[in-house]
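Weekly sync notes, structure subgroup
Attendees: PM, AL, DS (notes)

Item 1: joint prediction request from the bench team. They want all two components modeled as one assembly rather than separately. Inputs as received:
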Amino acid sequence: MDIIEHPPILRLPGIPDHVTYTWIAMLFLIVVSLFATRRLALVPTGAQNLMEMVLEQFHQILDEVIGAGGRRYLPLVGTLGLFILTSNLMGLVPGMASPTANLNTTAACALIVFFTYHVIGVRKQGFVTYLKHFAGPVPGPLKPLMFVIEVISHLARPLSLSLRLFGNMAGGHILIAIFFFMMGFDGLLGWALTGSFGGLVIGAPGTIVAAAFVIGFLLPLKLLVAFLQAFIFVMLTMIYITGALEEAEHEAHHAPAGHH
Amino acid sequence: MRRTLMFALMAVFAVPGVALAQAAAGGATDWVKPAAALAAGLGFGLAAGLCGLGQGRAAGSAVDAMARQPGNTNRIQTAMILGLAFIESLTLFVFVIAVILLFVKS
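Output from the run, pasted for the record:
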């Protein structure tokens, strides 16, 4: 699939673009973190100030969604969020590709989330209790059916998580690529430059309208989507972790009544 | 008026069909690619339109709730964004299928 609005400048031979730009995103985040933690001060300045502000936002959402003890998962959630946000925003820089516009990157992130929240759930309440909870709070005969449905719904989570991020990013790229093609030398601008009557009447205003639409609407929309999709990914990660954690209390509440 | 419209519609729908039939007479699987393009376009149009209806309902209700309870704006907004993401993901499945239909060579 080669529809991208601006081909990436840096291309390593034999290595796919999304891998190269994943490394660049990693490098960027590592350098920013090093700068932020190089001279730690009580009253933060510069890079430290910025990173503290960002991480405080993460703390706030973690407290809101997971509640007490949620800050334990800041390393996972913060890393995923910052990496996805950086990757999304890299797609807007001319000459760079966005790694999240490739299904492999997003599937990797989603699989990490999938296995992590199951491991968290199993470690919190033991394997059998965790499995039991898939059957849900339904009467006995319905439990096998509920178990199957619940397993399918859990298996659909990484699928929808990865496809949502990938679809949003790749869809935006394809949309902007099509608009660039439409108003470029092969499209309206080329028609206007031929000097024909139709080109002057339709092509030239059409180019201006399309350019104004792209600059005024599509690129701000992509910026919004980049932040929004990173937020949604992080939010869903936290909700899945909450689901895996909460089941212990839920089970404890129902145990006396539900099991004989 | 109505008859003219119907003839125009018939022409629009029939002529590509005739062209397609003639093209198909040449090769055995020539119709796969146009059919895939048609399916991708129609399917994604349908998905996007219905997703618009659903998201419109969700966003409308959220705005209604925010107007009634201005103090809870943040939580309503978070819930709305999550709901919109879930609705949107169904459309994105169709998007992925359309991309597979259009770009993956089989």
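Discussion: Helices of chain A lie at 17-38, 46-65, 74-90, 103-125, 127-132, 143-183, 188-193, 197-258.
Action: AL to compare against the crosslinking data before next sync.
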